[in-house]
């Protein structure tokens, strides 16, 4: 299994390369380059949220807990006194950060459903939906944002598989085939739940038409080829 540092570095390099290609293709703007690279990098560490007590998982649930607490304050502010609001916010934070986190740990198994192509699709659609509905990104940018997360996710799964090949002894480790799989065949119930989540997330995504048109347009690739090498001398020397 590849470690956290390997995952984050590989995903960051892969995302940087892809976002530059997208820029050359005219799919993204220069100011969006950082956003998409960061999303791809995050996608590259996302599958390991199924590692019990892993730092990224704790961080994720801390962020979710804070969001829930602030959301609670926002919604309940007109009805309660200050002290009651503090109690409510603290309670909602603890519920997410500790109870939901514990429940998630018990439920997930390392290299289970979160190491699968179905999960990559789920996080793609979820990111696209959130980018559009919560962060007001246009349909094309929202689909690209999701695609970058899924791309980082895929890099992670491939890297895990590469690390399960023992090149020195030319044999496969037991973990081979546990990362890059369509669904978790050993746990069909969680796989079914994940597939339902994929469908629900897809339903709330904005229209993929613009994204598809750009992806299947030969001009996009023509743009990449014309921008790949400098037209004059290197670095304008
Ligand atoms: Zn992994």
Short description:
The protein is mainly α. Helices cover 67% and strands 2% of the residues.
List the helices and strands and how they pair.
Blueprint lengths: L3 H22 L7 H13 L9 H22 L5 H26 L9 H17 L5 H25 L1 E2 L4 E2 L15 H16 L5 H7 L2 H11 L9
Antiparallel strand pairs: 1-2
Helix pairs in contact: 1-2, 1-6, 1-9, 2-6, 3-4, 5-6, 5-7
The structure holds zinc ion.
Zinc ion binds next to helix 6.
Structural summary, described in words:
A two-stranded antiparallel sheet has the order 1-2. Helix 1 runs antiparallel to helix 2 and helix 2 (33-45) packs parallel to helix 6. Strand 1 (165-166) and strand 2 (171-172) form a beta hairpin. It has 2 domains: 4-51 and 110-229, no CATH class; 52-108, no CATH class. The chain starts with a helix and ends in a 9-residue tail after the last helix. The protein is mostly helical and 237 residues long. 67% of the residues lie in helices and 2% in strands. The mean pLDDT is 89. Zinc ion is lined by residues 47-48, 115, 156, 160, 179. The site of zinc ion has 6 residues, from helix 6.
Helix/strand-derived class?
Answer: mainly alpha
Summed up, the helix count is: 9
Task: List segments where confidence is low: pLDDT < 50 over at least 5 consecutive residues.
Answer: none
User: Hetero groups bound?
Assistant: zinc ion
Q: Helical residue percent?
A: 55-70%
Cα distance, first to last residue? Answer: 45 Å
Order of helices and strands: HHHHHHEEHHH
Q: Strands across the major sheet, in which order?
A: 1-2
Rg estimate, integer Å: 21 Å
Could you tell me the strand content as a percent range? under 5%
Mean pLDDT: 89
Q: Structurally, how many domains make up the residues?
A: 2
Largest sheet: 2 strands, antiparallel
Number of strands: 2
Query: Judging from the principal axes of the Cα atoms, what is the shape?
Result: globular
């Amino acid at each position: 299994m590849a470690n956290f540092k390997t995952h984050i570095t590989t995903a960051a390099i892969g995302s940087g390369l892809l976002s530059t290609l997208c820029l050359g293709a005219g799919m993204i703007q220069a100011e969006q380059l950082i956003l998409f690279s960061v999303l791809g990098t995050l996608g590259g560490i996302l599958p390991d949220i199924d590692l019990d007590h892993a730092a990224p998982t704790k961080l994720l649930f801390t962020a979710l807990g804070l969001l829930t607490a602030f959301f609670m304050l926002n919604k309940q502010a007109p009805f309660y006194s200050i002290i009651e609001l503090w109690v409510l916010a603290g309670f909602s934070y603890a519920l997410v950060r500790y109870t939901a986190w514990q429940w998630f740990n018990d439920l997930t198994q390392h290299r289970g459903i979160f190491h699968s192509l179905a999960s990559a699709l789920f996080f793609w659609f979820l990111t696209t939906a959130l980018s559009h509905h919560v962060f007001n990104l246009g349909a094309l940018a929202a689909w690209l944002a999701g695609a970058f997360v899924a791309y980082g996710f895929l890099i992670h799964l491939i890297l895990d598989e590469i690390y399960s090949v023992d090149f020195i002894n030319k044999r496969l480790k037991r973990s081979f085939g546990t990362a890059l799989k369509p669904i978790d065949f050993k746990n069909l119930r969680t796989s079914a739940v994940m597939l339902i989540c994929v469908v629900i997330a897809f339903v709330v995504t904005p229209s993929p038409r613009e994204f598809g048109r750009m992806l299947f347009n030969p001009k996009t690739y023509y743009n990449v080829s014309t921008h790949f090498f400098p037209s004059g001398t290197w670095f304008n020397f």
